[in-house]
């Protein structure tokens, strides 16, 4: 029983943050953001920042706990769903690009 109590919230974090990342990246037409030598999708960066702030804010909220496993599940979901993008050769989400010739990372 305790396995299900601990695994379902992690799966929820992974799926919610991952799907939000995917939908935001697609709605922004896979726009990228350059941070030095690193190029990220803007949607990926925005969701990662939001998840980090949300998880860290729980340290100061009563009845909430800061949990590194939740933050790790958020990060894994964001990273995994960032790969599931339109036109990626390994995933082919829609088979053909919705946006024509998309510059991929």
What key phrases describe this protein's structure?
mainly alpha; two-stranded antiparallel ribbon; 2 strands; 105 residues; globular
Please provide a written account of the structure.
- The protein has one domain.
- It has a two-stranded antiparallel ribbon with strand order 1-2.
- The chain is built from 3 helices and 2 strands.
- The protein starts with a helix and ends in a 22-residue tail after the last helix.
- Helix 1 (about 1-25) crosses helix 3.
- It is mainly alpha-helical.
- It has helices at about 1-25, 40-55, 70-85; strands at about 30-35, 40.
Total number of domains: 1
Q: Which percent range fits the helix content?
A: 55-70%
Strand content: 5-15%
The number of E-state strands comes to 2
Q: Enumerate how many helices there are, as a single number.
A: 3
Q: Structural class, from helix and strand content?
A: mainly alpha
User: Can you tell me the overall shape?
Assistant: globular
Q: Span between N and C termini? A: 42 Å
Q: What does the main sheet amount to?
A: 2 strands, antiparallel
Mean pLDDT: 81
Helix/strand order, N-terminal first = HEEHH
Global Rg: 16 Å
Low-confidence stretches: 89-99
- Strands of the widest sheet, in order across it, are 1-2
